[in-house]
Design goal:
Layout: E1 2-7, H1 11-21, E2 26-31, H2 43-58, E3 62-71, E4 78-79, H3 82-88, H4 90-97, E5 105-115, E6 122-132, E7 148-150, H5 157-160, H6 164-167, H7 169-184
Parallel strand pairs: 1-2, 1-3
Antiparallel strand pairs: 3-4, 3-5, 5-6, 6-7
The chain binds inosinic acid (IMP).
Residues 10, 66-67, 82-83, 86, 143-145, 157, 170 line the site of inosinic acid (IMP).
Length: 188
């Protein structure tokens, strides 16, 4: 079993990543360091910057993940500001912004950045299109899960529970990372 250090202060995220990487024989060692978040509209740059700085700081290879919910009718808002918007106006505030808007299309984007101390970050991406629900639904999730319906499911992530892993933006990005990690580190 190989392990990887994952820098996150979010235990729910860590739990999902553990479940996603387990079938690949990769254990997750959580470093409870706060991501160093630069302000940028591009979540790829945010994750890569943070991975580069933190891997140097803890003198170990690590991964950092950054996620954003991009709503088409709001021109991609909240995007890279998803954490701030969740903390401030929350789900009810986002639903209010969407009142009277029929175009509910949105996309969840996830970026995983892997970096070795002194090295260049390598980035893996996952993206799932879906819709913003008209109301909060489901109680198995966290963050925006109760208002995001992945395309073709008719249920929110919070209603899908652990089945979220089969379709999620996070699963797509981390599976891509896992395949690369196993190949490049010769894990058998
Ligand atoms: P961050 O990547 O931890 O900065 O997440 C940005 C915001 O999106 C936070 O408010 C998270 O709660 C939310 N978020 C991140 N990933 C997910 C997810 O898989 N489901 C629902 N909300 C998420």
């Amino acid at each position: 079993m190989r392990s990887i250090t994952f820098a996150t202060g979010n235990p729910k995220k860590a739990e999902e990543v553990r479940r996603i990487l387990k079938p690949y024989g990769i254990e997750v060692d959580v470093a409870k360091v706060h991501k160093i978040e630069i302000q940028d509209e591009n979540i790829e740059r945010i994750a890569a910057f943070s991975a580069r700085i933190l891997s140097r700081r803890i003198c170990k290879p690590l991964i950092v993940e950054d996620t954003g919910l991009f709503i088409d009718a709001l021109k991609g808002f909240p995007g890279s500001y998803s954490a701030y918007v969740y903390r401030t106006i929350g789900l009810t505030g986002v639903l209010k912004l969407m009142e009277g808007i029929d175009d509910r299309d949105a996309v969840f984007r996830c970026v995983v950045a892997y970096c070795e101390p002194g090295g260049k970050p390598i980035v893996f991406k996952g993206e799932v299109r879906g819709r913003i629900a008209y109301e909060i639904r489901g109680d198995a999730g966290w963050g925006y899960d109760p208002i995001f319906e992945p395309e073709g499911y008719g249920k929110t992530y919070a209603e899908l529970g652990v089945y979220k892993d089969e379709v999620s933006h996070r699963a797509e990005a981390f599976r891509e990372f896992a395949r690369w990690y196993i190949r490049s580190k010769n894990i058998v």
